[in-house]
Structure formats: C-alpha cells, structure tokens
Amino acid sequence: MSDFELVIQSIEDKVSTLLSRLEDLNSENQQLKQELDSLRTDIEQRDRLLCEKEEEYNALKIAASMLGSNDNKRASKLKINALIRDINDCIASLSD
Questions:
Q1: What is the 3-state secondary structure (H, E, C) of the chain?
Q2: What is the rounded CA–CA span in Å between residue 64 and residue 76?
Q3: pTM, to two decimals
C-alpha cells in the first residue's frame, strides 16, 4: 500500500472508532436521562411525603399541647391569643 492509502485507512479506522464511541455515548446518555427522570420523580414523591408528615407532626404537636402537655402549653396559648386578637380585629372592622 502507498502512504496515501495508509493515511486513508487510518482516517477510516479513526472515524469508525469515533462513530462507535458516539453510539455508546448516546446510549449511555439516554440511560442517564431515564435515571434522572426516575430520581426526580422519587424526590417529588419524597417531598410530598415530607410535607404531609410535617403537617401531621404540627397537628399532633398542637393536639398534644391542648391535651395538657407542658412542653407546648406556652406556644399554644400564644397562638390562641393571636387568633383571638385577629377575631376581635375582624369583629371591630365589621362593626365600623
């Protein structure tokens, strides 16, 4: 073979290698996109569950404080007083 044919053969081999690598990378990219979508869905589900559990926790904390728990009595009293003030303000604005 001449030098020219060797160069062409070398270029063809490199292009073939690059195309093969490109196909592998595209396949890997597709798999990673699917994994990312799956993980995003999982995170969204966990975030929703976390919000639900936080709401349940806050409701239980308020219920426990109203049942006479000493831990949150002061916080409950402050919340109740704030609610009463808000109601009084509403009544005052309605009567004007």
A1: CCHHHHHHHHHHHHHHHHHHHHHHHHHHHHHHHHHHHHHHHHHHHHHHHHHHHHHHHHHHHHHHHHCCCCCCHHHHHHHHHHHHHHHHHHHHHHHC
A2: 10
A3: 0.52
CA–CA dist 96, 91 (Å, integer): 9
Domains of the chain by residue range? 3-70
Q: Give pLDDT tens digits for 27-46.
A: 999 999 999 999 999 999 99
Report residue 46 as tokens: 């966990």
Cβ proximity of 71 and 64 under 8 Å:
yes
